[in-house]
Amino acid sequence: MRDTVEFDVSDMQDPYSDKGVYAKFYFFPMEDHKASAEQGRPIFSDREFIEIIAAGNQNNIVRRPATEMDRQRFRRQYTMFKQGDEDQVVGTPLKEVPWITRSQIEEFAYRKIRTLEDLAGMSDAQCNAPGMYDMKRKAEAWLKKANEAAPFTAMSAEIEALKAELAALKTQAEEPKKKAG
């Protein structure tokens, strides 16, 4: 009997497929039984592990050796792990959200909710603390509004970059005139 199930990672490429899922890669020392037998003492080597938690459900935590499927499914988190980022938070950190208080951030951290996306992605059943359902709805609305504004924000940034480039070109064009005059 197999203890793993094979999945097609392309089924998980939808950005909403992992909505409300926190994944973290880390190293964990595993005993190398063969090397331990050869050396006559315990020999350990670090292996890549993954921790997967559904946001808001701190009682259901999966910790196991990381598979290639995990590395593909949680590509952003894995890339950050390889770059040395310990937290591997993907999304808008709660501390960057102006309407969430410090005490709420601490409460959410206990529940393994670290980002606004984690909060919005919680199931209604997980909203079991007073006011949490309203916070979830507010997070959903905030993210929706941000997504709708994204094209305008990108356009505004592009306009600012073009203005800076134009100013640099004007300065460059005026230099020969200053030298000649």
Write the layout of secondary structure elements.
Elements (H helix, E strand, L loop, with lengths): L20 E11 L1 H7 L4 E11 L6 E5 L2 H6 L1 H8 L19 H9 L5 H5 L11 H49 L1
**Biggest sheet: strand arrangement:** 1-2-3
What about the largest sheet? 3 strands, antiparallel
Can you write the helix and strand succession as a string?
Answer: EHEEHHHHH
Helix content: 40-55%
Number of helices: 6
Counted beta strands = 3
Would you identify the regions where 5 or more consecutive residues have pLDDT less than 50? Answer: none
User: How many separate domains make up the residues?
Assistant: 1
Shape: flat
* Whole-angstrom Rg: 24 Å
- How far is the N terminus from the C terminus? 87 Å
Work out the strand percent: 5-15%
Mean pLDDT: 81
Helix/strand class: alpha+beta
